[in-house]
Amino acid sequence: VDAMILATVSYLPMCMVPSIDSSKHCEGITLKEWYECLSSIINEKKDMAHLYLHDKDKHNTEFYIKNCNSENKYLERRLKLLECLAKCPRYKEITISDFSGDYVDIKENEPKQFAAVTFTLNNGNKVVTYRGTDSTLSGWKEDIDLSWKEEIPSQNDAQDYLVKISKLYPDA
What pTM value is reported for the model? Predict the structure, then answer.
């Protein structure tokens, strides 16, 4: 259940979440701090779409601003989940760090949608979560490629990310 919960909130904008740096450990921010950051943006701008202007995943920014009305229900639910986690003693001190994201549009080359983050549990264990594809044409193309190709670029990125994290945190 914990992995599912953390995977769900990893779809939220990565405001303030430190990007991966393969040369050093990353402190990260707590789920409580992350929620406070996201909610302050909403309170200031009175518009959920503005969350994506602060996102490190620029594809996410463009996609969600264009599709804000259809995606708002998911954003609202995920934000509500993060709010609950930020108030819950079991989750509020879990940290999120090492964001990595890459997007290649279908118009360019082979489409790719990749995003991953690492959560550090209160006991020091790490949980790596990956975002899935979205409802863009690139997302659909990548989903179809998964059904018949032996491997796709996002799978390689996912493997590379996991290797980097295991080298950064060998004792976790």
Answer: 0.84
